[in-house]
C-alpha cells in the first residue's frame, strides 16, 4: 500500500469536477483532472476561447465568479494536473493495478476525433466521476431536419461562440432549462418567437408547492431563475404552458413548426394546431446522465438510472465517487456541493468532517429542489402520440417509428438487445446516446404488459468514445506522473 | 398424439432444431432462461464458413450446412413476409491471406487438403487477391479464395427460425430457467422443473450453447462444454471497401487451439449497414464478460496488417460472447447413451450459426429414426475422443457437489 | 435567414474584434472568428446541411452541439468522422462533407 499522497483522478471539468479537484487538493491529495474539451467549465460554463476576450462575459453566465475562482485555483496549483483534450474511452477492472481503485482508465489525448492521439493509462487510488449530462430530446416529425437543435446546442454556440442558431426561433420542450436557452438566444441576437413548456400549471404547481420552505435555502437557484424570467420580460418573449412543437416542416432545412396544445400527458390536442414560420427550433425535454464510464467502472444505478452514491458520494465500487448530474439532475449548485464532498471523500475525508459541513447542507437543499423540478417538468407518458409511422426515432440508423413497431410485432421479441439488432435502432455512431431511452420506452410500450425482459440497458457502452483502430493498436503509455507506474501493455 | 420434445435454449441451435422438429410434426416446446437470441447468437459474427475447417467430420457438417442455408433463407423470407427484418444472408465468399512466409506455406498446404475434401479453395496470386480486395495491404504472401463462405445476421436469423417454428406450432417460453430434472417413479427423465412448474416431454434436447454444461450437469449427465470468450470490434459506417470475409491465416490455428491464453486473429468484413466488423479474440476466462483492452488492441493490430487503411477507421463499439468450447473440437449431436430421453445439440464453438441448420436436420432424422444425410456417429456423446473428457466432467460434477437433484414433484 | 455570429460591435459583453479564421468547405472558403468550432464557422457561413444520410439521403446538420449526437460529422484534412462541433477551426482546414452510401444489397440476399 502506498504511504504517499492519494492519487485522485477527476473525470470531467464541469462544476462538479472542478469542485472535486479543489476539495481533493485541499485535503492533500495529488489530483489529475481530465476533460475532453480544451476548456474548463463543462457545458454549464461553456465560454469564449482565449482568442476572443470580452470585458463583460460574466453577463452570459450564472456563477461566473465561482467558475473563475475554481478554475484559477486548480490551474495555478502544481499538485493538480489538468489534462485537456483527454477523452476517456474505456475503464476496465484491473486487479493487478497499483492504484487502490484497481481500475485502469484508458485515455486518448489530442484533438477531438483526431488520429494518432497519445494513449495513456491511469491507475489512480480514487476516481471522481463528474461526467455530466446532455439534453434528452424526444422525437417528433421533422426533428431530424437541419435547423432543429437541442437546447444545449443553442446554449453552447451562443455562450462559446456568440453564434445565434437562427434569426426567428422557437424554444420547446420541458423544464427550467428552456429559460436560459431562450435568454441566450435573445442576447445573441435571435428573435425568440416563443417558449413552449409542455407541462401545465397544475403540474408545475404540484411540483413546486408541496414544500415551499425548501426554496428558502435554494435562494441562489431562485435568483438564477428569476434572472432568466426578468430577461424574458425585457425581451418580451412569450412563455406558454401546455404547448409543444409537435412537428417541424421543411425540405432541406426547417422552415416552419406546428405548435399544439397538449394534454397533461403531453398528447397533442386535435384542433389546436398552429403553424409558425421559423428558421430554427431549439428543443429540450430534460437531461440524460452520461453513465457509460460509471457503468464500465461497475457502479450500480438507482431505479431512476442515476449513479447510486452514499453520503460521501461514494459509489458501490471501492474508490469510485460520483458527483453532479450523473447522480441526479440538480443543476450547478447541487453539482458544486456534491463535487466538493466527493473530492474530499476521494482524498480520504468523511462526509461528517467540518470542511464539508456547508456542502452537505447545500446538497440537502438543492436535492429537494431537483426533486421538485422533476415533479413539475418531467417527461409524461403521452408523447408518442406526436409520432407518425415515418418519424425517425433513431437518427443515426434512420429507423422510423413504424419500422420499430413492425419489427417488434413480426418477431414477437421482448428482448431489447435482439430488437436493436433486428432494427439497428441505437446501433449507429451515437450508440444510442440520443435515442436510447426513447427506443426503450417505445419498445416497452409496444411489447405490452410484460415489457422488455432481457434486462439490457442502452446506457452500457464499453467503448465510451470512438477510438481510431490505429490508436487502439498502439501500445498504451503508462502515466509518467503517476506514483503507480503501470507496465506497458500492448497488442500481442 | 405427436411425440413431444422440450428444447432447452432459444439460441440459433435451439431455434433451428425447433423449426426442423415442428415441421416434422413433433410437439415442440422451447424454454430459455432469458430471451430468444439472448446469448451467444446475438454476440457473434454470423459466420457460415468452410474455409476455417480442415478435412474431417466438422467440415462434412459445415458442407452439409452450406447446402441448406440458401434454400432455408428463401423459405423463411417467403414464410415470414416483408415485415420481418432481413436475415442479411450474403454468400460473399472468404479470402484467407497469409502475411508471413511460413504462414503462406501452411495456408497453401491447408487449402490443398481442403480441396481433397471437396472444398472450393482457390489459391490465387497476391495480385489477384488485391483485385478482389483493392485495399488489401502489401503484406499478403499467399491467398486462398473460398467462394462458399457466407454470412448472416445471427440474431435476426435466430429470430426468424423461432418465428417460423412458432408458425409450425412450437411454443416458446422465455425467462423460464431449468431448475432440475423430473423423473418418473422408475427414475426415467420425463421433464424439467421450471418456475412455471413441471414441463414434461418425451425427449429433452439441450441446446444451451456455452451454458449446456451447466444444464447437462443439473439434469444428471455432465458434459465437458466450456465457455470461450470472443470479442469483436465494430467501426463506424464507411464507404464499401471490403467485399469478402477476409481473414489472416492465423485464424485457422486459433480456432483449433486448446490454449486458454488470449489469442487473436483477424477476421474483417463489411456489414449490410456499412460498418466493418473486426474479430476476434479467443480466451478462456469462464463467464467473465468484461471487455479487455489488450484483446481489443491485439485484434486492431492484426486487422491493420491486412487492411492498412483501417488504421484511421473509428471503432464505435465492441461486443463479446461466449462460444461453447469442446475439448475434442467437435459438437455433440444426438441422444445421451447415459440417460435415455436426454439429447444434446451443443459444443459448436465459434461455428454454431453456420452449423445450426445441419445440426437441426441431424437431430430431426435421429429422433425420427431415419437415416441422416451425413453420418451422425462422429458427433455422438459416446465417441471415443470424448470418453476421457466425459468421465472428467462427471468427476467435476461430483466434486462440485452438484449431483442431480429431482425437482419436487 | 440562418445562423449568424452576433457582430462584436453589437455584443453587450463587449468583446474585442475577433481575428478571422478561414477554412474551406468542399473547396469553398468560409471565414469565421478564431477559436470557433468548425460547426460554428460552417453554420455562420449559411450552411445548415453538413451531410446527407446513408439510408434516405436526408440532409443533416448540427443537432446537439456538444459532441453527443454525431450528426455534424465531417472529413477534416483527410480525417473522417470528425465532429465539427468539437473541433476548433484552424486556418486552412479543408472540410469535406461526408456521405457514406450503404453497400449494395448482395445478389444472393433473398431476405
Layout of helices and strands, plus pairs?
The complex is a heterotrimer of chains A (492), B (409) and C (111).
Chain A: E1 7-11, H1 15-26, E2 30-35, H2 64-75, E3 80-84, E4 86-93, E5 103-109, E6 118-122, E7 126-129, E8 133-135, E9 148-150, H3 151-161, E10 163-164, E11 168-173, H4 178-186, E12 191-197, H5 201-208, H6 213-217, H7 219-235, E13 239-241, E14 243-249, E15 256-261, E16 274-277, E17 280-284, E18 287-289, H8 292-297, E19 320-322, H9 332-346, H10 357-377, E20 392-394, E21 399-400, H11 401-411, H12 416-423, H13 436-447, E22 467-468, H14 469-473, E23 477-478
Parallel strand pairs in A: 1-2, 1-7, 2-3, 6-23, 7-19, 9-17, 11-12, 11-17, 12-13
Antiparallel strand pairs in A: 4-5, 5-6, 8-18, 14-15, 15-16, 20-21
Chain B: E1 4-8, H1 12-23, E2 27-31, E3 47-48, H2 57-80, E4 94-98, H3 101-116, E5 122-124, H4 126-132, E6 142-146, E7 150-151, H5 154-167, E8 171-173, E9 180-183, E10 189-194, E11 197-200, E12 203-206, H6 212-219, E13 226-235, E14 245-248, H7 250-255, E15 263-270, E16 276-282, H8 293-306, E17 314-325, E18 332-335, E19 342-346, H9 352-368, H10 384-399
Parallel strand pairs in B: 1-2, 1-12, 2-8, 4-14, 12-19
Antiparallel strand pairs in B: 3-7, 4-6, 5-6, 9-10, 10-11, 13-16, 13-17, 14-15, 15-16, 18-19
Chain C: E1 4-5, E2 20-25, E3 28-33, H1 38-44, E4 51-52, E5 59-60, E6 73-76, E7 79-83, E8 94-97
Parallel strand pairs in C: 2-8
Antiparallel strand pairs in C: 2-3, 4-5, 6-7, 6-8
Question: In CATH's first tier, which class of the largest domain in chain A applies?
Answer: Alpha Beta
> The biggest beta sheet of chain B, please?
8 strands, mixed
Q: Going across the major beta sheet of chain A, what is the strand order?
A: 3-2-1-7-19
Label the overall shape of chain A.
globular
Oligomer: heterotrimer
Total helical segments of chain A: 14
CATH superfamily of the largest domain in chain B: FAD/NAD(P)-binding domain
CATH architecture of the largest domain in chain A: 3-Layer(bba) Sandwich
Distance between the termini of chain A: 30 Å
Amino acid at each position: 500500500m502506498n504511504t504517499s499522497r492519494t492519487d485522485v483522478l477527476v473525470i470531467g471539468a464541469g462544476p462538479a469536477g472542478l469542485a472535486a479537484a479543489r476539495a481533493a487538493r485541499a485535503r492533500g491529495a495529488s489530483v489529475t483532472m481530465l476533460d475532453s474539451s480544451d476548456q474548463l467549465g463543462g457545458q454549464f460554463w461553456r465560454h469564449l476561447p482565449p482568442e476572443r476576450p470580452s470585458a463583460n462575459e460574466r453577463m452570459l453566465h450564472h456563477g461566473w465568479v465561482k467558475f473563475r475562482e475554481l478554475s484559477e485555483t486548480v490551474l495555478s496549483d502544481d499538485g493538480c494536473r489538468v489534462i485537456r483534450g483527454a477523452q476517456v474511452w474505456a475503464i476496465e477492472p484491473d486487479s493487478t493495478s497499483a492504484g487502490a481503485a484497481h481500475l485502469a482508465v484508458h485515455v486518448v489525448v489530442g484533438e477531438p476525433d483526431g488520429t494518432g492521439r497519445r494513449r495513456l493509462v491511469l491507475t489512480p487510488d480514487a476516481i471522481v466521476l463528474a461526467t455530466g449530462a446532455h439534453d434528452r430530446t424526444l422525437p417528433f416529425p421533422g426533428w431530424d431536419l437541419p435547423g432543429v437543435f437541442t437546447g444545449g446546442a443553442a446554449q453552447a454556440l451562443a455562450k462559446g461562440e456568440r453564434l445565434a442558431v437562427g434569426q426567428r426561433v422557437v424554444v420547446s420542450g420541458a423544464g427550467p432549462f428552456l429559460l436560459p436557452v431562450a435568454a441566450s438566444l435573445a442576447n445573441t441576437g435571435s428573435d425568440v418567437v416563443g417558449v413552449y413548456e409542455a407541462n401545465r400549471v397544475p403540474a408545475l404547481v404540484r411540483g413546486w408547492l408541496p414544500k415551499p420552505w425548501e426554496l428558502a435555502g435554494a435562494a441562489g437557484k431562485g435568483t438564477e431563475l428569476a434572472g432568466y424570467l426578468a430577461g424574458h420580460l425585457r425581451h418580451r418573449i412569450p412563455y406558454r404552458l401546455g404547448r409543444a412543437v409537435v412537428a417541424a416542416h421543411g425540405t432541406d432545412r426547417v422552415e416552419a413548426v406546428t405548435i399544439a396544445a397538449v394534454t397533461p400527458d403531453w398528447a397533442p390536442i386535435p384542433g389546436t394546431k398552429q403553424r409558425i414560420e421559423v428558421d430554427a427550433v431549439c428543443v429540450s425535454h430534460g437531461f440524460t446522465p452520461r453513465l457509460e464510464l460509471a457503468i464500465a467502472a461497475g457502479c450500480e444505478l438507482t431505479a431512476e438510472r442515476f449513479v447510486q452514491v452514499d453520503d460521501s458520494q461514494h459509489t458501490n465500487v471501492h474508490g469510485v465517487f460520483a458527483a453532479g448530474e450523473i447522480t441526479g439532475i440538480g443543476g450547478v449548485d447541487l453539482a458544486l456541493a456534491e463535487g466538493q464532498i466527493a473530492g474530499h471523500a476521494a482524498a480520504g475525508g468523511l462526509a461528517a468532517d467540518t470542511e464539508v459541513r456547508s456542502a452537505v447542507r447545500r446538497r440537502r437543499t438543492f436535492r429537494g429542489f431537483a426533486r421538485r423540478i422533476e415533479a413539475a417538468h418531467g417527461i409524461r407518458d403521452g408523447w408518442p402520440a406526436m409520432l407518425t409511422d415515418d418519424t425517425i426515432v433513431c437518427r443515426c440508423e434512420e429507423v422510423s417509428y413504424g419500422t420499430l413497431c413492425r419489427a417488434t410485432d413480426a418477431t414477437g421479441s421482448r428482448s431489447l438487445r435482439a430488437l436493436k439488432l433486428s432494427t439497428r435502432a441505437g446501433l449507429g455512431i451515437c450508440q444510442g446516446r440520443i435515442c436510447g431511452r426513447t427506443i426503450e420506452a417505445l419498445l416497452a410500450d409496444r411489447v405490452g404488459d410484460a415489457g422488455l425482459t432481457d434486462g439490457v440497458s442502452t446506457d452500457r457502452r464499453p467503448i465510451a468514445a470512438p477510438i481510431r483502430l490505429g490508436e487502439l493498436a498502439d501500445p498504451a503509455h503508462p502515466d509518467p506522473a503517476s506514483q503507480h507506474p503501470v507496465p506497458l501493455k500492448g497488442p500481442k | 398424439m405427436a411425440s413431444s420434445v422440450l428444447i432447452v435454449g432459444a439460441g440459433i441451435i435451439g431455434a433451428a432444431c425447433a423449426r426442423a422438429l415442428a415441421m416434422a410434426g413433433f410437439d415442440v416446446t422451447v424454454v430459455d432462461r432469458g430471451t430468444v437470441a439472448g446469448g451467444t447468437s446475438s454476440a457473434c459474427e454470423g459466420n457460415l464458413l468452410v474455409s476455417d475447417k480442415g478435412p474431417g467430420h466438422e467440415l462434412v457438417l459445415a458442407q452439409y450446412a452450406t447446402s441448406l442455408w440458401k434454400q432455408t433463407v428463401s423459405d423463411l423470407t417467403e414464410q415470414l413476409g416483408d415485415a420481418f427484418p432481413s436475415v442479411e444472408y450474403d454468400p460473399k465468399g472468404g479470402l484467407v491471406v497469409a502475411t508471413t512466409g511460413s504462414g503462406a506455406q501452411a495456408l497453401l498446404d491447408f487449402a490443398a487438403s481442403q480441396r481433397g475434401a471437396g472444398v472450393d479453395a482457390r489459391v490465387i496470386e497476391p495480385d489477384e487477391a488485391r483485385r478482389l480486395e483493392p485495399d488489401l495491404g502489401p503484406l499478403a504472401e499467399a491467398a486462398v479464395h473460398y467462394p462458399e463462405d457466407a454470412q448472416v445476421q445471427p440474431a435476426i436469423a435466430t429470430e426468424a427460425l423461432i418465428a417460423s417454428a412458432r408458425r409450425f406450432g412450437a411454443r416458446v417460453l422465455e425467462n423460464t430457467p431449468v431448475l432440475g430434472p423430473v423423473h418418473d417413479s422408475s427414475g426415467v427423465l420425463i421433464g424439467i422443473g421450471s418456475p412455471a412448474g413441471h414441463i414434461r416431454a418425451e425427449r429433452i434436447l439441450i441446446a444451451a450453447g456455452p451454458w449446456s454444461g451447466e444444464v447437462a450437469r443439473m439434469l444428471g449427465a455432465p458434459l465437458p462444454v466450456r465457455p470461450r470468450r470472443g470479442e469483436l470490434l465494430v467501426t463506424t459506417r464507411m464507404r464499401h471497401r471490403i467485399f469478402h470475409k477476409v481473414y489472416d491465416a492465423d485464424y485457422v490455428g486459433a480456432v483449433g487451439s486448446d490454449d486458454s491464453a488470449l489469442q487473436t486473429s483477424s477476421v474483417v468484413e463489411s456489414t449490410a449497414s456499412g460498418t466493418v466488423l473486426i474479430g476476434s479474440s479467443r480466451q478462456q476466462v469462464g463467464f467473465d464478460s468484461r471487455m479487455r483492452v489488450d484483446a481489443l488492441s491485439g485484434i486492431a493490430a492484426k486487422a491493420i496488417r491486412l487492411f492498412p487503411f483501417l488504421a484511421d477507421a473509428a471503432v464505435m463499439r465492441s461486443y463479446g460472447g461466449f462460444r461453447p468450447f469442446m475439448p475434442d473440437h467437435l459438437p455433440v449431436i444426438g441422444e445421451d447413451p447415459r440417460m435415455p430421453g436426454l439429447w444434446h445439440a451443443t459444443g459448436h464453438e465459434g461455428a454454431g450459426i453456420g452449423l445450426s441448420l445441419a445440426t437441426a436436420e441431424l437431430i430431426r432424422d435421429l429422433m425420427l429414426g431415419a437415416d441422416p444425410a451425413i453420418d451422425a456417429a462422429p458427433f455422438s456423446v459416446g465417441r471415443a475422443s470424448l470418453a476421457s473428457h466425459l468421465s472428467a466432467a462427471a468427476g467435476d460434477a461430483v466434486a462440485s457437489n452438484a449431483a442431480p437433484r429431482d425437482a419436487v414433484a | 435567414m440562418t445562423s449568424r455570429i452576433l457582430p462584436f460591435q453589437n455584443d453587450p459583453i463587449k468583446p474585442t474584434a475577433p481575428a478571422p479564421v478561414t477554412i474551406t468547405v468542399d473547396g469553398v472558403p468560409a471565414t469565421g472568428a478564431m477559436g470557433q468550432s468548425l460547426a460554428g464557422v460552417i453554420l455562420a457561413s449559411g450552411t445548415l446541411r453538413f451531410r446527407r444520410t446513408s439510408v434516405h439521403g436526408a440532409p443533416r446538420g448540427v443537432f446537439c452541439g456538444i459532441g453527443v449526437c454525431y450528426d455534424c460529422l465531417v472529413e477534416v484534412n483527410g480525417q473522417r468522422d470528425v465532429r465539427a462541433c468539437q473541433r476548433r477551426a484552424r486556418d486552412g482546414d479543408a472540410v469535406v462533407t461526408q456521405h457514406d452510401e450503404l453497400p449494395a444489397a448482395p445478389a444472393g440476399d433473398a431476405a
